[in-house]
Amino acid sequence: MKKHFMIVSLIIVASLVLTACGGAPKAKDLLTEIQNRGTIIVSTDPNYEPQSFLNTAGKRPANTKCTSDQLTAAEMQGFDVDVAVEIGKRLGVETCFATPSWDLITAGSWADKWDISVGSMTIKPAREQVLYFTTPYYYYDAVVAVKNDSGITSLAGLSGKALCVATATTYEDWLNGVLDLPTSDVFAQPPANVTVVPLDTDQECAQAIKVGRIDFVGYVTASTVVAANLAQGFPVVQIGGPVYRERLAVALDKSSSLPADTLLAELNSIISAMHTDGTLAQFSLKWFSVDLTQEPK
């Protein structure tokens, strides 16, 4: 009896020591891990105005749970940022931002460095091989813009020219003739014999034109980005109408070390509620002056 009592006592002591040293059992899934941590780590683009960009006037809160290599909600702003922060609120945790390059986000295998992507990612089959997608939280069109003194007024006029895109995007796929979206969402074929000039983000294309870069005549990006560029006086003009439609969703890594199915279900519930209660429409009107959250007919 004494021997049995001593063994049980030793097990209890060992358990207490492990807990005190940070050896608590690992969370059963990603949702539980986020709730236990008190933060959700969201990857997004810090140079994608008006969807997401740095708030230079923002002051980092002293009591934040975000780590030193993460940005707080106060240090970011934009439509995607508002969506990500609202998701955090509805999960009961603080939203923290990571800003990896877009190609790393779309490639999957995030090594648990961030939990989800709220970065206006288009749902497409190739990405669905490595990522889970929620129901779309908004929709926009891809368009082409060119330098306002280029003399080009149609897609056909871009044949043989160089165009800029962000790397690993649907815009790059479209120009290369490998866009894998439903045919009902594609409205125009790319111009022939185009030279593709990839940069890290969409906004870098517009910003390069603004400062006088001459190795490309225009860029392909979201209609929202071009609208923001025009509003800020960039020397560009949009050519024609939409070339294809994008359905944007929150993404999760299929290679997460913890099961992500419960988090995916919870995110779908939150996004559905945000559609129903008008929160997403309110954010869209705030940043785009139009409601882009309704599914196209």
What would you note in describing this structure?
The protein is of the alpha/beta class and 297 residues long. The protein has two domains: 12-138 and 248-288, Periplasmic binding protein-like II (D-Maltodextrin-Binding Protein, domain 2, 3-Layer(aba) Sandwich), CATH 3.40.190; 139-246, Periplasmic binding protein-like II (D-Maltodextrin-Binding Protein, domain 2). Helix content is 34%, strand content 24%. It is built from ten helices and 13 strands. The chain has helices at residues 2-20, 30-37, 79-91, 102-107, 125-128, 170-175, 202-210, 223-231, 261-276, 279-288, and strands spanning 39-43, 47-48, 52-54, 71-72, 76-77, 94-98, 116-122, 131-133, 138-147, 162-166, 195-199, 218-222, 236-253. α6 links the parallel β10 (162-166) and β11 (195-199). The chain starts with a helix and ends in a 9-residue tail after the last helix.
Instruction: Return the CATH class of the largest domain.
Output: Alpha Beta
SSE order: HHEEEEEHEHEHEEEHEHEHEHH
CATH architecture call of the largest domain: 3-Layer(aba) Sandwich
Point out poorly predicted stretches.
Answer: 1-22
Radius of gyration based on Cα positions: 23 Å
Structural class, by secondary structure, is alpha/beta
So, the CATH homologous superfamily of the largest domain? Periplasmic binding protein-like II
Helix content: 25-40%
Strand content: 15-25%
Number of strands: 13
Task: Name the descriptors.
disordered N terminus, 3-stranded antiparallel beta sheet, D-Maltodextrin-Binding Protein, domain 2, 2 domains, alpha/beta, 297 residues
